Structures are given as structure tokens and as C-alpha cells.
């Protein structure tokens, strides 16, 4: 297993083009993703924030894509993974969008990271970045 050098917090929903509260509801249960994909970061006395690894983001993206195969699968997914009935109703009211392929490029991460991305298409990174000298 590769060493984790980056984790992602609030902006995961934006990266995936998802509802922030939906993502928070899914990752609030650490059993929903593989062990080590969800990390709690302590940043003060009794203050923590939940973060995802790159692998965790990719797993979450795949989980959501699988759930969106049909409206029935999507509704079942929401019923199983989201405890908040109001959130579930709000997300169900929006039709599940079509699953288009997600571009997997490491360089897109760095463009997004520095705020000069080429587009607003959500991107997931499957490998660690490489540096040339």
C-alpha cells in the first residue's frame, strides 16, 4: 500500500459533482468505505474533520456510479446509506443523472489544486503524481 500524502475534506463533493450533505452522510459511517479510506484529522481540542484519501474518493465515486445504474438502485442506495429522511427525500427528488465516464488523470489534480484547472469536469486520480527534473 502506498504512503498517503494527501487527504481531501469539504471539497470532495465539489470534485465529484455531488451534494455535499449526501457525501457527508455516506462518509459519516466509516464502514461504508474500505478501512483507511476515511481519515479523522484532529485539528484542535476535541475538534476533528473527516477526510478522504485518493483511493477513498475513487471508491466513493465508483459506489455512486454503481448506485445510479437505475432509479430503483439509486433509491435503494439512498435508503441504505443515508439516515436523514429529509436529505434522502431531497436527493430522491432530483433524478439520478446519467453516468458519464470520469477522466482519470493525475495532472488534473495539480491543476485543480493550484486553482488553474482546464475545466470544471470532476476528476478522480488513480495513481500518484510523478515529477520530472
What does this protein look like?
This protein is mainly alpha-helical. The protein has a domain of 89 residues. Strands 1-2 form a two-stranded antiparallel sheet. Strand 1 and strand 2 form a beta hairpin. The chain is globular and about 40 Å long. The two termini are 25 Å apart.
Q: Major sheet: size, sense and barrel closure? A: 2 strands, antiparallel
Share of helix, binned: 40-55%
Number of strands: 2
Order of helices and strands: HHEEHHHH
> Major sheet: order of its strands?
1-2
Radius of gyration: 16 Å
Shape: globular
Helix/strand structural class = mainly alpha
Q: Separation of termini?
A: 25 Å
Beta-strand percent range: 5-15%
Count helical runs: 6
Q: What is the overall pLDDT average?
A: 76
Give the low-confidence spans.
99-107, 116-133
Chart the SSEs and their pairings.
Elements: H1 12-16, H2 20-27, E1 38-44, E2 47-52, H3 54-67, H4 71-81, H5 85-93, H6 106-113
Antiparallel strand pairs: 1-2
Annotation keywords:
133 residues; mainly alpha; two-stranded antiparallel ribbon; disordered C terminus
Q: How is this structure best summarized?
A:
The protein is mainly alpha-helical and 133 residues long.
